[in-house]
């Protein structure tokens, strides 16, 4: 599943990325080595045939064919086609990850909005959270091969504790030709309305907020379903695949080392092994393999999403169903049950009387203590003191190049003094 190497590149060091080239799991070598060996074997077979099984006339004809193939192979737009395709696939891959339904926001609203620490309140919160978890499980079971192998039938879902036997009868009694992952969300909304009528949800605003979070959760389930249904257009995938494969089929002939005695341009050396052609195959075919692995991240490849881990993460704590099945559900059940109204005692923090609190630094991070706080990229920029261009107005307006109000007040004061001096210097008219 997902190969994480974030800690290995946390700091930029000498050959930091180069050390990643030695990894095998999730590497391009593991994805590409079979195709690479097949390409090299075909190249070697054609080269061996050219050198040892063709007579002179056949060799001359093969050499003309090789020059022709090498000349026109550049007409295939490899970089252009592959670049757009891989960009599309990577963007789609990340969008699918952000569409995975997580119950965190829903459980926070539920534990704060649905009141009651009695058995009825606890039952409502746990059942509603289980319905949300069941909806996420049903959609992941529909799109992920790993989850489907873990829960191949509804019986396995019931046995795991996500659904009771009575709920299974209700679920299977609703006949629909479409995917029914949304049914637990409807059960959730009905229970929310029931809790509001019982007064456990205090006001309509809280109910509205809870249903909005439920709709956002259900919307992510729907988005995953549509990503699974609407693939990257098949014609685009076919064009890219044909472009890559046809290019390297042409290279099998066009990149052969020809007889140097014939004087063909660019064939002065006979190196036997086409090093740069093999590198080109490694880069372009590897680029295509990246798209092949990311186009559906809900499989079982090295870098596919950990869907079973997400299911285990979303449900925590032990609880009993009426059928006395013990189930291990994790985060969401803990939040709405064990953590409900279970708060630590409020007390004064350690910086209560400190107006300038600063958390301590360890010896390894003391150099960060001396760094000044960032106040903006222009904070320390030097400002030119050159005067601004003269304005055509007689009345002075504040120039944009003056940066301080003190300078502005001083300039106005000097202007008033000059005006008074001019008035005194003018001769008075006789009366």
From TrEMBL:
<dbReference type="GO" id="GO:0005886">
    <property type="term" value="C:plasma membrane"/>
</dbReference>
<keyword id="KW-0407">Ion channel</keyword>
<comment type="function">
    <text>Forms chloride channels.</text>
</comment>
<feature type="region of interest" description="Disordered">
    <location>
        <begin position="408"/>
        <end position="431"/>
    </location>
</feature>
<comment type="similarity">
    <text>Belongs to the anion channel-forming bestrophin (TC 1.A.46) family. Calcium-sensitive chloride channel subfamily.</text>
</comment>
<feature type="transmembrane region" description="Helical">
    <location>
        <begin position="75"/>
        <end position="94"/>
    </location>
</feature>
<feature type="transmembrane region" description="Helical">
    <location>
        <begin position="36"/>
        <end position="54"/>
    </location>
</feature>
<keyword id="KW-0812">Transmembrane</keyword>
<feature type="transmembrane region" description="Helical">
    <location>
        <begin position="269"/>
        <end position="288"/>
    </location>
</feature>
<dbReference type="InterPro" id="IPR021134">
    <property type="entry name" value="Bestrophin-like"/>
</dbReference>
<keyword id="KW-0869">Chloride channel</keyword>
<keyword id="KW-0868">Chloride</keyword>
<protein>
    <recommendedName>
        <fullName>Bestrophin homolog</fullName>
    </recommendedName>
</protein>
<keyword id="KW-0813">Transport</keyword>
<dbReference type="GO" id="GO:0005254">
    <property type="term" value="F:chloride channel activity"/>
</dbReference>
<dbReference type="Pfam" id="PF01062">
    <property type="entry name" value="Bestrophin"/>
</dbReference>
<feature type="transmembrane region" description="Helical">
    <location>
        <begin position="234"/>
        <end position="257"/>
    </location>
</feature>
<keyword id="KW-0406">Ion transport</keyword>
<keyword id="KW-1003">Cell membrane</keyword>
<keyword id="KW-1133">Transmembrane helix</keyword>
<dbReference type="InterPro" id="IPR000615">
    <property type="entry name" value="Bestrophin"/>
</dbReference>
<keyword id="KW-0472">Membrane</keyword>
<dbReference type="GO" id="GO:0034707">
    <property type="term" value="C:chloride channel complex"/>
</dbReference>
<feature type="compositionally biased region" description="Basic residues">
    <location>
        <begin position="409"/>
        <end position="431"/>
    </location>
</feature>
